[in-house]
Write a structure and sequence with these properties.
By secondary structure, this protein is of the alpha/beta class. The chain folds into four domains: about 15-115, NAD(P)-binding Rossmann-like Domain (Rossmann fold), CATH 3.40.50.720; about 150-215, no CATH class; about 220-335, Tetrapyrrole methylase, N-terminal domain (Cobalt-precorrin-4 Transmethylase, domain 1, 3-Layer(aba) Sandwich), CATH 3.40.1010; about 335-460, Methyltransferase, Cobalt-precorrin-4 Transmethylase, Domain 2, CATH 3.30.950.10. Helices cover about 40% and strands about 20% of the residues. The strands form four sheets. The chain has a five-stranded parallel sheet, sandwiched between helices. Helix 7 packs antiparallel against helix 8 (about 195-205). The longest helix has 18 residues, at about 150-170. The relative contact order is 0.06. The structure holds S-adenosyl-L-homocysteine. The site of S-adenosyl-L-homocysteine (SAH) has 25 residues, from helix 14, strand 15 and strand 17. S-adenosyl-L-homocysteine (SAH) binds next to helix 14, strand 15 and strand 17.
């Protein structure tokens, strides 16, 4: 490590910028975003601030005269960007005066370098490569961006606001550190990261005995996490973070092994799913397990296939948690219907052709018998059916009887986004046979004209009139 990262206090004095053109503009944007007072020597004499907003432009002192002889008293740093030879001369002068100087892309002339920056308010991460490769620095920054919650800066500001009053109440350093760990890793931290600052403040204020709070095991909470349809790369960044933070994960059958691989190594994993035809452990028992885990201070994740609120009983689970006074939050996932549609290129809506979507479940024939099929006959409606494999004959009958055309394109998308995905397409009249062709679930049925635009349809019908006509009509 040749360069030690330090953070400059930009309130301590002005920063001098020497240069012109796009390089100087880029530095202006950076300095203004950091609230710096900038004294700019434009080497071409043109202080172009036309691309800055008025308030920012006002914060720039447009310096005239020669920077090589200008007064540099109180200046905290000098940046040269697009300054040519003047930059080199300026660097020499800065060294004599002992002012930190950076000449863009010229480490040999610089006494400091400007890092790639992740800026989340009070939380700032600086990434440097010792001036060797700005591109590598940017790639590292992108990874860190993805790892850090968007509101991590709010968490730091929150702790900052309460720092002194907690310090007064908890003079013991070790106890204070425990206190802050409980706050930041527990429901209060989760509230801040979810944008619920007032809830967090209320919870913090309600801690009457900070020593007891710090010494307790800490409060647990439950995060309902949508795991998506199977491909682990379809997890959201938030979902991944929750899996990495969990003490215990209660997961459904539909959650793929590749996704369980992303769970923190030492987290306990508890299967709570039910397979079709076999009883699971029961919804009440699941509620009990979640509540017990949180009450014993654990960070519990309830990991569900697809999205927790789409045919996933997520609504019942949060009602049970609320009733038990357990803190929780919900992270959405990509529901299987959307995963299947994206993978097989079924545009679920399409200008003029498909204006509405219905998500429907038809688990058993009796469920399917309860569906009001007459509400699904609109030709411009795409129907996405969950758990519809065994009820496929009933679904076909229901739609045909209600008046939907037997020629309506349909697709059966099994194990969507997984390595063994299989899609078959055809007409509504053949739906039960199509469902048999995919061999096993889980599978989504999509019914509607847009299926004729899908990749499997195009592959199966290279000269198909329907798709040709549809394309020509565009
Ligand atoms: N909450 C889940 C749905 C749970 S219901 C979600 O939002 O996706 C279970 C049904 O989801 C299955 O019967 C099947 O219809 C569908 N499903 C789940 N994963 C699937 C996958 N990878 N491919 C196709 N269908 C899937």
């Amino acid at each position: 490590m040749r360069f030690l990262p330090v953070f400059l206090d930009l309130q301590a004095g002005p920063i001098v910028l020497v240069g012109e053109g796009e390089p100087a503009q880029a530095k202006l944007r950076l300095l203004l975003a950091a609230d710096a007072r900038v004294r700019w020597f434009a080497t071409d004499g043109n202080h172009d601030v036309s691309r800055l907003d008025a308030a920012s432009a006002e914060r720039i002192e447009r310096a005239v005269g020669d920077p090589l002889s200008a007064d540099l008293a109180n200046v905290i740093a000098i940046l040269c960007a697009g300054a040519g030879d003047t930059g080199h001369a300026m660097a020499a002068r800065a060294r004599v005066l002992g002012i930190p100087v950076n000449v863009m892309d010229e480490t040999a002339h610089s006494t400091f370098i400007v890092p790639a920056i992740v800026d989340r308010g009070d939380v700032v991460v600086a990434v440097g490569t010792g001036g060797t490769s700005p591109v590598v620095a940017r790639r590292v920054r992108e990874r860190i961006e993805a790892l850090l919650p968007a509101r991590i800066g709010d968490l730091a500001s929150f702790a900052g606001r309460w720092r002194d009053s907690i310090k007064a109440r908890l003079p013991d350093l070790a106890m204070r550190r425990l206190f802050w760990e409980r706050v930041i890793d527990g429901p209060i931290g989760a509230d801040i990261l979810a944008g619920r600052v007032q809830d967090a403040e209320r919870k913090l204020i309600s801690i009457h005995d900070p020593v007891a709070f710090a010494a307790s095991g800490g409060e647990g909470f439950v995060t309902l996490v949508g795991a998506g349809p199977g491909d682990p790369d379809l997890l959201t960044v938030k979902a991944l973070r929750a899996l990495q933070d969990a003490d215990v994960v209660f997961y459904d059958d539909l959650v793929s092994p590749e996704i369980l691989d992303r769970v923190r190594r030492d987290a306990a994993r508890v299967p709570v799913g039910r397979r079709v035809g076999k009883p699971g452990i029961g919804q009440d028992k699941i509620h009990r397990l979640l509540i017990e885990a949180a009450q014993s201070g654990k960070r519990a994740v309830r990991l569900k296939g697809g999205d927790p609120f789409i045919f996933g009983r997520g609504g019942e689970e949060i009602a049970a948690l609320r009733a038990a006074g357990v803190a929780y939050s919900v992270i959405p996932g990509i529901t299987a219907g959307l995963g299947a549609a994206a993978q097989s290129e079924v545009p679920l809506t399409y200008r003029q052709e498909a204006l509405r979507i219905t998500f429907l479940t038809a688990h058993k024939a009796e469920d399917a018998g309860n569906v009001d099929w007459s509400a699904l006959t609109d030709k411009k409606m795409t129907v996405v059916v969950y758990m519809g494999m065994t009820a496929a004959p009933t679904i076909r009958e229901g739609l045909l009887t209600a008046g939907r055309s037997p020629d309506t394109p349909v697709g059966v998308f099994a194990r969507a986004t997984r390595p063994d995905a299989k899609a078959v397409v055809g007409k509504l009249r053949d739906l039960p046979a199509l469902a048999e062709q995919v061999e096993r679930g889980p599978a989504i049925l999509i019914i509607g004209d847009v299926v004729a635009r899908s990749a499997p349809w195009r592959n199966a019908n290279p000269d198909d009139l329907i798709s040709d006509l549809l394309m020509a009509a565009e």
